Amino acid sequence: MRTFESVFVVGAGTMGSGIAQVCAQAGLKVHLHDTNEGAVQKALEQIAWSVGKLADKGRLSEGKETILGRIREAQDFSACAEAEVAMEAVFERLDVKREIFRTFNEECRPETLFASNTSAIPITDLAAVTDRPENVLGLHFFNPAPMMNVVEVVAGVATAPETMQQGEDFVRAIGKEPIRVESDIPGFLLNRINLVSYIEAVRMVEQGIGTILDIDKGVKLAFGRRMGPFETGDMVGLDVSYGALMAIYEESKDPRFYPPQLLRRMVKAGRLGRKTGQGWYVYEKDGTPKKSG
């Protein structure tokens, strides 16, 4: 089993910061990079809050400052040279992700694993811009990463079997459970299930069949989920869900995944969920919903 000591993460948004936190809690050294000024500092503040909450609940085996001390801001990609895993967790745009993988290819050691947290873009498309596609795989975390225990380990067409095994080893090393995705289909396994149900929930609201509140309540009470589809959509970000759906649709041309009109309108209106204060619900400043959207 391969051991891991250092991880390089590109993207300091919700997913990137969550992944950085998970790795630091598992004892790994983390370099976190983002091109947006102030994004890493904001992420570090969020991570400090999250780790503090876990510490208050007695759910950590180490002190808060010890964990936070393992995360450092990376001004550029030079720290890739010491990482066993170089991972991107930026928004769902193929051109942006490909440019990151080109840089990984230039800066990383030959044995470094190249990983994408994409929820929908084929891993093969990302691996194609490197000269070592056998080292490229998907490591798809779920939101919020510190709380969700599953990670999809996704094989591209050229991903080597040993890379998949090392991906599983890495996921277990950071305290998560790996789920293998053996075929590089858009949306992988779990999103193809989840997004279809999300689309159906949105369409039922569009058609006046049910309300946002009742659908969320019913899903939680009947299916035992902690959050309903609209609550989850607001947490993830409507733009993120829209991007994932479009990526799957454009790759597969499967009409089941084309975003419903209401979702498209919400994204155009800038009602993206918790991060903008309004999505399917309207939010107080502390992030609690106050009424239906």
Task: Describe this protein's structure.
The protein is an alpha/beta fold and 293 residues long. Helices cover 43% and strands 15% of the residues. It is built from eleven helices and ten strands. The protein has an eight-stranded mixed sheet. β6 (136-141) and β7 (150-155) form a beta hairpin. The N and C termini lie far apart (49 Å). The model has no long low-confidence stretch (mean pLDDT 94).
How many individual β-strands? 10
Low-confidence residue ranges: none
Helix/strand order, N-terminal first: EHEHHEEHEHEEHEHHHHHEE
Strand order of the biggest β-sheet: 3-2-1-4-5-6-7-8
Instruction: Determine the number of helices (DSSP H or I, runs of at least 4 residues).
Output: 11
Ends: how far apart?
49 Å
Major sheet details: 8 strands, mixed
**Per the principal axes of the C-alpha atoms, what is the gross shape?**
globular
Radius of gyration: 19 Å
Helix content: 40-55%
Beta-strand content bin: 15-25%
Mean pLDDT: 94
Decide which structural class fits the backbone. Answer: alpha/beta
Please identify the oligomeric state. Answer: single chain
